[in-house]
């Protein structure tokens, strides 16, 4: 197991090592190069140089690119070994890597040239991570737990900041820490920056742990929303320290409290406003699809910068921008753009996260910032852990009075343990002004230690802890249609119960909100076409079908062709059939034939066919059908014209869609297919329908007389009825042919009472219809079939069973597919 | 009205039966009075007076379930014309949240009770099975809020959902088997792994009713 990747691993490691040496190396080269250049200029350019080495010219972007490359390569290396990454969180590994890199750089250069500056962090590294978090936020869960999250984010953070700061100050007064040039305010300032749980660290660790959704959203939501508190506390204490403790008045304190509301509400509003703008813009980007994804990023980033500019909470702004716009943006932009947005966002977030942790490691390697004070550092670690636990317990105790689903002890343990500190704290502490805060270096070193401790130690141990405590994990289940439907029903039922009992509760509010959303917001912010398809249930339905289609095609690929589509006999379906045949009548000849032509039952049916029909006809029809329906046309030479503004839709795409549509048809058909005895009913119905009838009537029919139809009909009755209808048919030859075929089959069937058989006859019958006869109204399932879910041979999800028909999904497709895509796969109906 | 002590006894009795606290019962009683127009019983028409209910797509089904005998008294079917306060409470108690001190067995019963209520709501002809017919109707009502969805696709969804149910409950089926509908056992099976007890609940407050009704 380990062997195969050892060689490439070694190679990669070598390459990586080379790269590690690169940054300092060019650094050294760069200085000399620059020097040389200067000399050259001094001498006056003697000759024109064909090749010049201009390191300084490209230095900064070059180094940035190199760092990103190193980080990404490091990720590859980490993931070569599953053992390591399953135990050690990636963030911890990256920090170690950063320390190593920092060491190398330092050894080569003797100055810590690369550290994470607050500007770099707040302007470039943080926004992508937070945007990603907001844009993919499970909104329902988030708003469902908003109260809890807010309590932890606001009260929890204030609690942590105050207690940590005050306790440290108290201990300092006792004299254990020796002498520091700090007053109470400095300690509170430090407390406020160390108090906040960090979204980057939490995400990095919790994503690997997979705790249940509620727990995750609470910890994660807290880490996102506590930004406002952190920013305000930090700013307030920072300015207090600047003006000096003795000059702080009560007015200033009030101002601080007011500024909290301004900062948080203002940040949120900015985010919502930009989300509105973004949604509105994407509504009109239909013709500039290629830059569609760009809007998402640019406008969200602008919300961040705007909030920053107005000194509001930028994290809140971009979070809420993502949260609010996701629904409309996802509905508006095209499928390709959605994918692009998703991947770009994930890539940016993941890359920046890598860099953040790596830089944290690198920044630690700088002797200038290290000031060791054992008591201070240790006590900080103790206090933040202890107060986190106490805070969580107190708040949960309070919350459980109000929460519908109380948080248990295990949840509380994980929540306290998940209080990871990270890069935000580091960036804030670096931002401190050394002139005002005398002990800045001590604070910086302590912060680094705290961050490393929480990310590495807690990150390492949280997984075993979660396992040991048997915390409810999040399960990745396939989306189930029933679940979605019931979920929807719940929403309505619960809001109704709230209405009836006369309370304004959670469901009541949500109900009202979704009404407003449907009536006004969606109309303004969503494209017309998107409004139709945005329904969640429809989405799940579609997803399921798509998955089926994919697995279906994959199955086909596995077997080398899609031929099995027309021969269900290969499937377990047919195996069942065989055994039954053998059991039921022991008809050696039939089963023999079946076994011999193990490739398909259809062949056998063809043989029966040939008794009445000329071989040629059938084969023509059959092959035509096969070609038309199941084989792709050879891929056409694509004209690869370069265009910056358009991407021509892929041929493959079209084919995928085609397969999808076909599978959908199958899926529903298989489910509708009746007990064998009722197959004739279907045909009977079809004839009764008459080809001239419009689709609408055929839609109504099954609904109209569901109970009135006799449940069982004898074959003879059917043929009688059919005969009548047959006479009434006043269509062209094609229809006659069709009727003929069916009639013959039914006649045939009256002789054979093997149910399995009839099913197959029916199938071949449909298959024999040439596409030009393929009308939508062809087969209407019998009422009984609709009433009762019939057996479908093998696993439903796998859509193995194939009963041909053309109905029942088209309308869905109509809804689902953009209008411009014609239903090309159905040869246009109504035989003339 | 009766003397005050008997009233509090009555409330206590109801509280024991339904699991509500006496404040909640007081509160719900006020609401009941409000809905019924100070009558001892509520009829279907009384529910029409709740304006917020008007746009609820499942309105008919929900109101119906208040008068469904299966939800009120065990082992009988059909509808009653009016319900008294105790019945009202019985229905409401299906939506109580779980309590911290419930043990496994209680939880299980609680869960079943909730699901039973739901099942009865879907199974409109009370034959113990949710047929495709019934399911389709529910789905139709559910999706009626979306005017863009046409009937046909709603049907397809119902069918696909039923198919899914069949595959969950029956697994591999014999060729000539017919899945006739979701029985309560199947219903339980479908809900396995989903915390209904954490989903199907309403916070019953002790405050004055706020939502208007006329």
Automatic annotation (TrEMBL), chain A:
Bilayer topology: Multi-pass membrane protein
Region described as Disordered: 672-706
Keyword Transmembrane helix: yes
Pfam families: Na_H_Exchanger (PF00999)
Region forming the signal peptide: 1-30
Biological function: Plasma membrane Na(+)/H(+) antiporter. Exchanges intracellular H(+) ions for extracellular Na(+) in 1:1 stoichiometry, playing a key role in salt and fluid absorption and pH homeostasis. Major apical Na(+)/H(+) exchanger in kidney and intestine playing an important role in renal and intestine Na(+) absorption and blood pressure regulation.
NCBIfam families: b_cpa1 (TIGR00840)
Protein name as it appears in the record: Sodium/hydrogen exchanger
TrEMBL record, chain B:
Residue ranges occupied by any EF-hand domain in the UniProt entry: 110-145
Superkingdom in the source lineage: Eukaryota
Family: Belongs to the calcineurin regulatory subunit family. CHP subfamily.
Annotated SMART domains: EFh
UniProt name for this protein: Calcineurin B homologous protein 3
Lineage: Eukaryota, Metazoa, Chordata, Craniata, Vertebrata
InterPro entries to which the protein is assigned, alphabetical: CHP3, EF-hand-dom_pair, EF_Hand_1_Ca_BS, EF_hand_dom
Record's bilayer topology term: Lipid-anchor
Subcellular location: Cell projection, Lamellipodium; Cell projection, Ruffle membrane; Cytoplasm; Membrane
Record carries keyword Hydrolase: no
Keywords carried by this UniProt record: Calcium, Cell membrane, Cell projection, Cytoplasm, Differentiation, Lipoprotein, Membrane, Metal-binding, Myristate, Nucleus, Protein kinase inhibitor
């Amino acid at each position: 197991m380990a062997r195969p990747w050892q060689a490439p691993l070694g190679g990669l490691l070598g390459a990586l090592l080379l790269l590690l040496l690169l940054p300092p190396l060019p650094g050294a080269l760069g200085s000399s190069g620059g020097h040389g250049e200067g000399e050259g200029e001094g001498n006056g350019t003697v000759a024109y140089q064909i090749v010049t080495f201009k390191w300084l010219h490209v230095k900064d972007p070059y180094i940035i690119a190199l760092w990103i490359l190193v980080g990404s390569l490091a990720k590859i290396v980490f993931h070569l070994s599953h053992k390591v990454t399953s135990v050690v969180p990636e963030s911890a590994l990256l920090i170690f890597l950063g320390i190593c890199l920092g060491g190398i750089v330092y050894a080569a250069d003797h100055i810590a040239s690369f550290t994470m500056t607050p500007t770099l962090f707040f302007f470039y590294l943080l926004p992508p991570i937070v945007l990603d978090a907001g844009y993919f936020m499970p909104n329902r869960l988030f708003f469902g737990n908003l109260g809890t999250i807010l309590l932890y984010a606001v009260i929890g953070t204030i609690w942590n900041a105050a207690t940590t700061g005050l306790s440290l100050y108290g201990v300092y007064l006792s004299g254990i820490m020796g002498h520091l040039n700090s007053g109470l305010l400095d300690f509170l300032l430090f407390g406020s920056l160390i108090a906040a749980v960090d979204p980057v660290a939490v995400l990095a660790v919790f994503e690997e742990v997979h705790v249940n959704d509620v727990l995750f959203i609470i910890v994660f939501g807290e880490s996102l929303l506590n930004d406002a508190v952190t920013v305000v506390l930090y700013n307030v204490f920072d300015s207090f320290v600047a003006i000096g403790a003795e000059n702080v008045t009560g007015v200033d304190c009030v101002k601080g409290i007011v500024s909290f509301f301004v900062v948080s509400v203002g940040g949120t509003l900015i985010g919502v406003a930009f989300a509105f703008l973004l949604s509105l813009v994407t509504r009109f980007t239909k013709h500039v699809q290629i830059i569609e994804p760009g809007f998402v990023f640019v406008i969200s980033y602008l919300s961040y910068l705007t909030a920053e500019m107005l000194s509001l909470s930028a994290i809140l702004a971009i979070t809420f921008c993502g949260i609010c716009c996701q629904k409309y943006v996802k509905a508006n932009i095209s499928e390709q753009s959605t994918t692009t947005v998703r991947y770009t966002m994930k890539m940016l977030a993941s890359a920046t996260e890598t860099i953040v942790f790596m830089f944290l490691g690198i920044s630690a390697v700088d002797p200038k910032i290290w000031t060791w004070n054992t008591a201070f550092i240790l006590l900080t670690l103790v206090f933040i852990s202890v107060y986190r636990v106490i805070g969580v317990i107190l708040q949960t105790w309070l919350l459980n009075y109000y929460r519908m689903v109380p948080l248990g002890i295990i949840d509380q343990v994980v929540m306290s343990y998940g209080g990871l500190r990270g890069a935000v704290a580091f960036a804030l502490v670096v931002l401190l002004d050394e002139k005002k805060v005398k002990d800045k270096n001590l604070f910086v070193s302590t912060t680094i230690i705290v961050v490393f401790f929480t990310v590495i130690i807690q990150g390492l141990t949280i997984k075993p802890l979660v396992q040991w405590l048997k915390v409810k994990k999040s399960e990745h289940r396939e989306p189930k249609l029933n679940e979605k439907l019931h979920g929807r029903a719940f929403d309505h039922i619960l809001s109704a119960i709230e209405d009836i009992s006369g309370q304004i509760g959670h469901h009541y509010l949500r109900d009202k909100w979704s009404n407003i959303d449907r009536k006004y917001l969606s109309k303004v912010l969503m494209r017309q076409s998107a409004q139709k398809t945005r329904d969640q249930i429809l989405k799940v339905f579609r997803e399921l079908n798509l998955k089926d289609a994919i697995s279906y095609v994959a199955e086909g690929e596995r077997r080398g062709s899609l031929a099995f589509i027309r021969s269900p006999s290969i499937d377990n379906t047919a195996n069942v059939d065989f055994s039954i045949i053998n059991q039921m009548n022991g008809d050696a000849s039939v089963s023999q034939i079946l076994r011999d032509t193990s490739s398909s039952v259809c062949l056998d049916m063809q043989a029966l066919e040939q008794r009445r029909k000329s071989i040629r006809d059938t084969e023509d029809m059959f092959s035509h059908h096969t070609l038309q329906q199941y084989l792709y046309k050879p891929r056409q030479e694509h004209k690869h014209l370069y265009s910056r503004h358009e991407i021509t839709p892929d041929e493959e795409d079209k084919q995928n869609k085609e397969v999808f549509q076909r599978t959908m048809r199958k899926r529903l058909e298989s489910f509708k297919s009746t007990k064998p005895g009722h197959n004739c009913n279907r045909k009977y119905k079809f004839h009764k329908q008459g080809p001239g009838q419009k689709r609408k009537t055929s839609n109504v029919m099954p609904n109209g007389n569901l109970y009135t139809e006799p449940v069982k009909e004898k074959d003879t009755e059917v043929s009688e009825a059919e005969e009548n209808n047959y006479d009434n048919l006043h269509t062209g030859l094609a229809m006659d042919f069709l009727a003929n075929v069916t009639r013959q089959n039914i006649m045939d069937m009256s002789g054979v009472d093997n149910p399995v058989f009839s099913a197959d006859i029916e199938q071949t019958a449909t298959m024999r219809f040439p596409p030009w006869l393929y009308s939508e109204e062809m087969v209407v399932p019998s009422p009984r079939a609709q009433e009762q879910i019939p057996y479908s041979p093998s696993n439903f999800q796998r859509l193995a069973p194939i009963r041909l028909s053309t109905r029942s999904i088209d309308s869905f497709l109509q809804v689902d597919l953009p209008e411009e895509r014609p239903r090309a796969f159905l040869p246009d109906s109504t035989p003339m | 009205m009766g003397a005050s002590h008997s009233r509090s006894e009555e409330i206590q009795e109801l509280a024991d039966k339904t699991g509500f606290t006496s404040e909640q019962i007081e509160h719900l009683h006020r609401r009941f009075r409000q809905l019924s127009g100070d009558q001892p019983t509520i009829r279907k028409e009384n529910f029409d007076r709740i304006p917020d209910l008007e746009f609820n797509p499942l309105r008919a089904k929900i109101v119906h379930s208040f008068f469904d005998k299966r939800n009120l008294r065990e082992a009988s079917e059909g509808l009653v014309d009016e319900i008294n306060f105790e019945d009202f409470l019985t229905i409401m108690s299906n939506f109580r949240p779980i309590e911290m001190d419930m043990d496994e067995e209680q939880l299980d019963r609680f869960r079943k009770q909730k699901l039973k209520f739901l099942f009865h709501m879907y199974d409109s002809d009370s034959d113990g099975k949710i047929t495709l017919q019934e399911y389709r109707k529910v789905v139709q009502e559910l999706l009626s809020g979306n005017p863009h969805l046409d009937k046909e696709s709603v049907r397809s969804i119902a069918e696909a959902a039923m198919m899914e149910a069949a595959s969950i409950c029956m697994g591999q089926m014999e060729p000539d088997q017919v899945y006739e509908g979701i029985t309560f056992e199947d219903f339980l099976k479908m809900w396995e792994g989903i915390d209904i007890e954490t989903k199907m609940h309403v916070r019953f407050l002790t405050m004055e009713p706020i939502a208007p009704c006329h």
